[in-house]
Amino acid sequence: MPLLQTAPETLRLTAFLSGFALLALCEAAWPRRPLTVPKSRRWFANLTIIALNSLVVRLAFPLAPFGLAAMAQTNGWGLFNQLGISGWQELLASLLLLDLLIYFQHRLFHRTPLFWRFHRMHHTDLDLDVSSGIRFHPAEIALSLLIKMAAVLLLGVAPLSVLLFEILLNATAMFSHANMRLPLAIDRWLRLLVVTPDMHRVHHSVIPRETDSNFGFNLPWWDRLFGTYRAQPREGHDLMTIGLKEFRELDKLGLRQLLLLPFISRPARKPQ
User: Fold this and answer.
1) Cα→Cα distances 120→44, 114, 143, Å
2) Which candidate, 106, 50, 34, places its Cα nearest to that of 258?
3) Least CB-packed of 66, 135, 190, 226 within 10 Å?
4) Closest of 256, 28, 67, 238 to residue 148, by C-alpha
5) How far apart are CA 46 and CA 36, in angstroms?
6) What's the alpha-carbon Rg for the chain, to the nearest Å?
């Protein structure tokens, strides 16, 4: 396939940089909320974490999901390969099932105190913007990758499907966290197809029952289907508080503190 003639990592990096730059420009032109923390301070931590995660993935997982998918395809492993499902049917099924997996994984990381200790680093950001969409603890990234690789192997997802899913998930994660104002009429219709910034912002509310809603990153249907959808924050988007109640001190949210956050003695937040 022509798309696979270019190295997958090159395609992913190009898509990431292009999407990040475009969304950052949109945020500057049409901001949704005023920032409460200097962007330079937050971006230093967030972008350093992103770089560290990339290094961890390369060193700890030399066989990424794409390589595992190619191996499964060659050897006929996985459900789709055993059933002979290929082409657009395999692509559509893979994108839907992998996205559903991410939805339930996200819920699991909120419900399980041990996993929440790592995931809460993502929720400590006191503002949301494009950089927040990829601000995750390296241990969470590693665990997520293991879960995804297991799904790729069991389903027999094709390499092209893995590549497209990775690009889409990365792009929609940045989009859903962007501090970008969309006209309400557009948001109302767009959130029927994809998670919009206003929809996902509710998930980053300081109010626990709002934090435990709108788990989707890419497709918005799972939240509606499984009863976790919340249309708007109680305080409204302009007045809502973003983050976690127990982590409000800016001087304790630097890069080193964020990386050590899962290991501090404070108890994990109780699932709602």
Assistant:
1) 19, 10, 14
2) 50
3) 226
4) 67
5) 16
6) 18
| Calpha distance 267→243 (Å, rounded) | 17
**What pLDDT, on a 0 to 100 scale, did the predictor assign at position 15?**
94
Cβ atoms of residues 180 and 133 within 8 Å: no
d(CA 105, CA 270): 17
pLDDT of residue 36: 93
Single pTM value for the model = 0.92
pLDDT of residue 94: 97
Minimal CA–CA distance to 240: which of 230, 250, 249? 230
Cα distance between residue 76 and residue 43, in whole Å: 43
pLDDT recorded at residue 251: 87
User: For residue 86, which of 152, 161, 153 has the smallest C-alpha distance?
Assistant: 161
Angle subtended at Cα 129 by Cα 117 and Cα 20, rounded to the nearest 5 degrees: 110
- DSSP lists the bridge partners of residue 197 as none
Q: Give the per-residue pLDDT at 164.
A: 95
Q: Name residue, tokens 């859903």.
A: 176
Distance separating the N- and C-terminal Cα atoms of the chain: 46
Mean pLDDT by 10 residues, the chain (272 residues): 64 93 97 94 94 86 83 94 94 97 97 94 97 95 94 96 95 97 96 97 97 96 98 96 93 92 70 52
| Cβ pair 196, 182 in contact under 8 A | yes
| Residue length of the chain | 272
